[in-house]
Amino acid sequence: MWPSLCAAALTVLLRAGGCPGVLALWSSASMCGERVLVDMISGPRIVGGHDAQLGAWPWQVSLQVYQYGVGFKHLCGGSLINEYSVLTAAHCVRRRMDLYNWRIVIGLHDTSRPERHTVKRSAREIIVHSEFQIETFENDIALFKLSKSVSYNDYIQPICLPFAHIHLNINNQTKCFISGWGSISEKGEASSILQEAQVDIIPSDMCNSLEWYAGMVNNNMFCAGFEAGGIDSCQGDSGGPLVCYDPDASKYYLIGITSFGFGCGRPKLPGIYVRVFQYRRFKGTLPCN
User: Fold this and answer.
1) Catalytic residue list contains 112
2) What does the alpha-carbon distance between residue 34 and residue 36 come to, in Å, rounded to a whole number?
3) Which partner for 52 in 133, 137, 196, 286 could form a disulfide, CB atoms 3.0-4.6 Å apart?
4) Is 91 assigned a catalytic role?
5) Taking a C-beta distance cutoff of 8 angstroms, is the pair 160, 59 a contact?
6) Please, is 127 exposed, middle or buried when counting C-beta atoms within 10 Å of its C-beta (0-12, 13-18, 19+)?
């Protein structure tokens, strides 16, 4: 097993102990989910497991940890949801809660060669869902609050989050994509260039059948990939985005967070993702400032 909402006035809360508080107030709906450097009229570039175009996924974040003698190294992906917040998977930060060990890199394409528009930030706070279960990957969601806000440009943009009054109708015509710097094959080497692939959202009843995940996928999760395998998330992609394009709004929405799976690219064992919509109104508390 690999461990691998943009609405005004919408809030999401995670339970982290302390005093009542609000996790984040998302950006206005007009300021998210747009790939500025990609022609939205002719449609996005559709590839499977290939190098992404420079600036193609401007909300993609590299979460890096410090390794003695090596320096900062990519560990997990994340999604920029506003100028000071990055959403990721809880299992990425488990046992790594020391803020000084993390670096958040935004606007990155090649991990071996940051561009001039690449921005680096430290973490001011890490909030992990209090009911995260490592044994089952239940509630595999966490949030990084940046030490300093980032400014948007062609290469840095927030992703839209699903919210109550917008219904994104996901069907077999919906274009959904995963991206990350993870391994390009099971037990293989990671890619230094950001990879992208189009995936299908797989019905839960199919993914939970005996030949697939045999009931492991609950309502807070979903599967994406292909029955035949071959295209999937892998180690190093955890916490990264699964986004779907809404042609009516001409925007992308963060539908899933890369969570876990058996192997990488195996038939009938696709990647499993956190269903972001389920956490849109999670009630809880935040630490007092």
Assistant:
1) no
2) 6
3) 196
4) yes
5) no
6) buried
